[in-house]
């Protein structure tokens, strides 16, 4: 399990009947506020962006790979 800013992301997820793996996670900020924690779930892990986009299977809006988006606690950076 990966934890980022208090948000726990499971190593795998089931989407559309397919098992996806957590490929990475990140934190989005706006000004000084922590806004979202997002996890990138894909059928096959890869460090190559082109390979990730070419993978077949469940997709999110706009034809991208499935992203699990969870709100982080809204706190200014460096204060939480």
Give the helices and strands, then pairings.
Elements: E1 2-4, E2 7-9, E3 12-15, E4 18-30, E5 33-42, H1 49-54, E6 67-71
Antiparallel strand pairs: 1-2, 3-4, 4-5, 5-6
Question: What would your notes on this structure say?
Answer:
With 80 residues, this protein is mostly beta strands. It has one domain. Helices cover 8% and strands 48% of the residues. It contains one helix and six strands, in the order E-E-E-E-E-H-E. It has one helix at 49-54; strands at 2-4, 7-9, 12-15, 18-30, 33-42, 67-71. A four-stranded antiparallel sheet has the order 3-4-5-6, with no helix packed on it. Strands 1-2 form a two-stranded antiparallel ribbon. A hairpin with a 2-residue loop joins strand 4 and strand 5 (33-42). The chain is globular. The two termini are 21 Å apart. Residues 61-66 have low confidence and may be disordered.
Compact description:
With 80 residues, the chain is mainly beta.
Number of strands: 6
Shape descriptor reads: globular
Strand order of the largest sheet: 3-4-5-6
Share of helix, binned? under 10%
Largest sheet: 4 strands, antiparallel
Percentage of residues in DSSP E strands: over 45%
Query: Which class best fits the helix and strand makeup?
Result: mainly beta
**What would the average pLDDT be, to the nearest integer?**
77
Query: DSSP helix count?
Result: 1
For the CA atoms, what is the radius of gyration?
Answer: 14 Å
Order of helices and strands: EEEEEHE
Stretches where pLDDT is under 50 for at least 5 consecutive residues are: 61-66
What distance separates the N and C termini?
A: 21 Å
How many discrete structural domains?
1
């Amino acid at each position: 399990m990966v934890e980022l800013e208090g948000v726990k992301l499971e190593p795998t997820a089931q989407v559309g009947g397919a098992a996806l793996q957590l490929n990475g996670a990140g934190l989005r900020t706006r000004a000084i506020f922590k806004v979202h924690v997002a996890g990138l779930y894909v059928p096959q892990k890869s460090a190559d962006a082109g390979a990730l986009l070419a993978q077949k299977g469940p997709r999110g809006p706009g034809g991208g790979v499935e992203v699990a988006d969870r709100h982080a606690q809204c706190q200014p950076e460096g204060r939480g």
